[in-house]
Predict the structure.
Amino acid sequence: MPDLALYPLHFDPIYKEKVWGGRTLARLGRTLPDGDIGESWELADLSTTSVSGGGGGAERSRIVNGPLAGRSLHEVIEQYGSEAIGDLPLTDGGDFPLLVKFLDANADLSVQVHPSPQYAATHADAFLKNECWYVLHAEPGAVIYKGVKEGTTPERFRAAIADNTVVDLLISIPVTAGDFHYLPSGTCHALGAGVLAAEVQTPSDTTFRVYDWGRTGRELHIDQAMQCITFGPCDASRYEPMTTIHGEHAVTTRLCASEYFNVDRVTVNDDYVADLDLSQPVVWMVLEGAGRIVCGAAPDVDFEAGQTLLLPPGMKHGKVTVYRPTTWLEVTFPKAEPVRIA
């Protein structure tokens, strides 16, 4: 067993400049690099990334707190094994089976689709991307696009791409802060302008664009997309239970239950204290408030709004306290057989 005891891990964000990005991530208390920042990759362990199906470079989060600072998540998994991930199955590439982001849609994202299960099964360079959005902030009138209107045929959809009317065939859903949406792979979708969101997804960046709002210089992938789109409304209700448990010191709402990950919103009051006895890794995306986690001989870890933490099961005698009312998104993993994701 490695000499250094494990503790809650905080990672250096990987910022992505996007044509649709802006500066709204500063709401999270961030000092942003120059440019229109569309994404902050909070926790990433990808051997390859891909926009159109071809392989790209690896993206690996690096720890910024405690004795393990400077090491990548991948290195910690290799060194600590079950102490870091329990019996959680890794991807085929040996990577952590989750990618966590914050998204700033200052402008509309491209209308896009991620590989369907059938497409991924027959294309070695394409991987499922099942994702969900938790809306942190939405400007008045903001929407997302989720699914295709009932009765739309592939032929009509392809014609609409050609004459720039495809948005008329998408289902537009108004959103406000606190809304949650699950998007299975194969769903035609887009994040609309004026939305700041937390995103939890399977670790793939394979994206097929079908429409880009008249922007130039970015490739579309219409033939690939047409093979992947699930036509009709997106029925994600089975993944969105929205059940709430009211405890003495905490309110927990189950937002998502899928075969890949679960997401809960946890809100605790200022006298909340709890032991952390974990058998699987847990991810916290802290939305408001602040607190501290102590874990035996390892360093104490303070946390605050805007931070993302990975709580490894190898932490010893973990205990969390909060300084004021605090809310986080808690991402956990179902007990499941390994699945083929990037």
Q: What stands out?
A: The radius of gyration is 20 Å. Residues 243-332 form a domain with the Jelly Rolls fold (CATH 2.60.120.10).
